[in-house]
Amino acid sequence: MIPVRRPKALGGIPALIVLANAQYRRVWGAGTLTELSRRVEQFTLSWYVLLDTDSPFALGLILVFLFVPRSVFAPIAGIIADRLNRTYALRAMQTVNVLNSSAILVLIATGNIQPVFAFASMLVQGATWTMDQPIRRTSMFDLVGPGQIISGVALDTLGFTVGRMAGPLLAGIFLGVFGFSEAYALALSIHLAALGLLVATRIPPHPPGPPRGTMLGGLVEAARYSASVPTLLAVVFLTLVMNGLGFPAQQFVPDIGKNHLMVGAALVGLLVAAEGFGQLVGAAVMASVRQLPDHGKVFIIGSVSILTAAMTFVWSPWYALTFVILSLGGLGQAAYSTMQSSLAMLYAPPEMRGQVLGILGVCIGFSTPLGTLEIGALATAFSTQWALSLNALAGLLLMAPVVLMLPITRPPTPGPTPGPTSGDEEPGS
């Protein structure tokens, strides 16, 4: 049995209590660095494809290839999160990231980079990203326990937001001042730092659970369970709506910045980071609040904020106003991201949490590429502004059945769950 050492009160601030767990800090730090590097790579390759093709459709393909692997790997990731050694799994995913970034850096440095290689790199990165998230977040649940999981996920959202905010900003500065090789060398060095943290990480073994059947059977069981619980069904539906009609708008910010606001790489990078500034503030607040009531309402408010920002920022004639609108949308991102995973884990039984998150990953992998391709086609035929606005409006209309029919606004009443383990003790000690 793993010894549990309770952290001191730390002033009663949940975020500080969670961060007192050394193993949580390593998992959280590695996730933050990985997201930072991924954002540097995504912006660098998006800017390259936009300059090379001047096509919003080709620009959208970066996001398409990043998310396509989710439909295939998300169920596998959920099963790994529930059944296999998560310490080794996280290290393996990060090793693949290092090798992938190294290959692209060589292509850029030798002048052999082409859009097809950028798309292939996003495909690999999408696979590792898909595998990483449910493994990392279920690890966090076992490390901090149900009593601190909202703060734990909020801190993870905070780290994600730091990467989302700083990644495009750093990439834009490096592209504007140096060049593509230097920007990608930065991404590779951050990936290596994340791998170093994971080498020092030890995640506790899975808590004992009921006998398990086949992997496919477990996934089917998780899907049936999600369909039978109204709140989980609402989370699944909103995930489809938001990733098909709301989130793809972020990928087209470089097109708006370059062709509508007429600014260069550094300012476009700052604009892409704008949502991150708002999300950073929102995640910090959520990580510090002792108890958030009405989790479902926070989830819905966040979704509405994201879609409203996506519908309006494209028409702003001023850079500063565009930045403010995107930042306000980022506040909604913090609420949405934190509550999506938290609601899924709170309502799923312990032996099924990773697989329920895997189902959400399938939804993301299915809806994001379709939505992005549709936006890219509309943007090519008409304009990026109209494509993004009409999709966001459709998303707002589709949210109505969830708000009216499903009890997502009720406070969660999760069943018994395993307590937290200390990150200061080695597994099995």
Structure notes:
This protein has a single domain, classed as MFS general substrate transporter like domains (Growth Hormone, Chain: A), CATH 1.20.1250.20. It is built from 16 helices and no strands. It has helices spanning 14-19, 22-53, 56-83, 86-109, 115-144, 149-177, 180-199, 215-228, 230-245, 253-260, 265-272, 274-288, 295-312, 319-347, 353-381, 384-405. Helix 4 packs antiparallel against helix 7 (180-199), helix 12 packs across helix 14 and helix 14 (319-347) runs antiparallel to helix 15.
Summarize the structure.
With 429 residues, the protein is mostly helical. Helix content is 76%, strand content 0%. It has a single domain, classed as MFS general substrate transporter like domains (Growth Hormone, Chain: A, Up-down Bundle).
The radius of gyration computed from the alpha-carbon positions, rounded to a whole number of angstroms, is 21 Å
User: How does the overall form come out from the CA principal axes?
Assistant: globular
Average pLDDT works out at 83
Helix content: over 70%
Which band does the percent of strand residues land in? under 5%
Q: Which spans of ≥5 residues are poorly predicted at pLDDT below 50?
A: 1-10, 414-429
Helix and strand string, N-terminal first?
HHHHHHHHHHHHHHHH
Count of alpha and pi helical runs: 16
Let me know the largest β-sheet: none
- The overall number of domains is 1
Counted beta strands: 0
SS-based structural class?
Answer: mainly alpha
Which CATH class is shown?
Mainly Alpha
User: Going by CATH, what is the homologous superfamily?
Assistant: MFS general substrate transporter like domains
- CATH T-level fold name: Growth Hormone, Chain: A
CATH architecture name: Up-down Bundle
Distance between the termini: 7 Å
